[in-house]
């Protein structure tokens, strides 16, 4: 799994994929969809698909794939290697949604919530498989939102394909388990090797699970909160945990506009103008706050 296309610019989303097995272009296939990293405040969310000929379902089952959440990291890596070794009949594709993409989507003027983002990612991956020549006949999906509505939506979008949407599909259908493993392995690798483009010095990577209720994650968020510029792009700043910390620990800033002189308006509000944080002597993106705090 070559993550270079995403690591080159982790501020945007990226699609990665395996080679399409010849068997998947000539035989009726099944496809599973699952995601990894929906809940964490740190790192990307990864949507994954895995597909194989229907005639190979039993062989896939014999690989002992299971819901990635029930496996250790080492077990997931081992199973991904097995899937890779079965490349003659197993293919996969991933949509890596960067933290920046997630947060800007959720906070844009026209709201684009996580469920809609998830649905569109899944739909895009199914369409990618079809466009690549995979002969899809069956699609199995771990539900996002009401299962019946999601199933109906996918069935209308992809007529002629039998769509099954179920809660806990990653523990019911091996092809979904395989997709779950691909997505989770990708997310784990991306998080572990995250390239911080911000000038943070030597970054403490002991950020725990990345979930908002993890004490290590909360401590990391506090440590790397810049009072003016907020968080590095590793953080989903649209998450309530991050927003609460920014509101309580960040500096209140007045944004200049054309209606009133920015500096005067800021002084009147006993505040600072945004422009006051930029000066010729500022050493870098995050260093200017150290001179003014």
Task: Give a short synopsis of this structure.
The chain is built from 13 helices and eight strands. It is α/β, with parallel strands linked by helices and 293 residues long.
**Quaternary structure state of the chains depicted:** single chain
> Helix share of residues?
40-55%
The percent range for strand residues is 15-25%
> What is the N-to-C succession of helices and strands?
HEHEEHHEHHEHEHHHHEHEH
Mean pLDDT: 86
Structural class by secondary-structure content: alpha/beta
Strand order of the largest sheet: 1-4-3-2-5-6
Largest sheet: 6 strands, mixed
What best-fitting shape do the alpha-carbon axes yield?
Answer: elongated
Gyration radius over CA:
22 Å
Termini separation comes to 44 Å
Number of helices: 13
Give unreliable regions as ranges. Answer: 280-293
Tell me what the structure shows.
There is one protein chain. By secondary structure, this protein is an alpha/beta fold. Helices cover 41% and strands 15% of the residues. It is built from 13 helices and 8 strands. It has helices at residues 4-8, 22-26, 57-62, 73-85, 99-107, 114-131, 147-157, 169-172, 174-192, 215-223, 240-249, 262-268, 288-292, and strands at 14-17, 29-36, 45-53, 91-97, 136-142, 162-166, 253-254, 272-273. The strands form 2 sheets. A 6-stranded mixed sheet has the order 1-4-3-2-5-6, sandwiched between helices. Helix 4 (73-85) packs across helix 9 (174-192). The longest helix has 19 residues, at 174-192. The radius of gyration is 22 Å and the shape is elongated. The protein starts with a helix and ends with a helix.
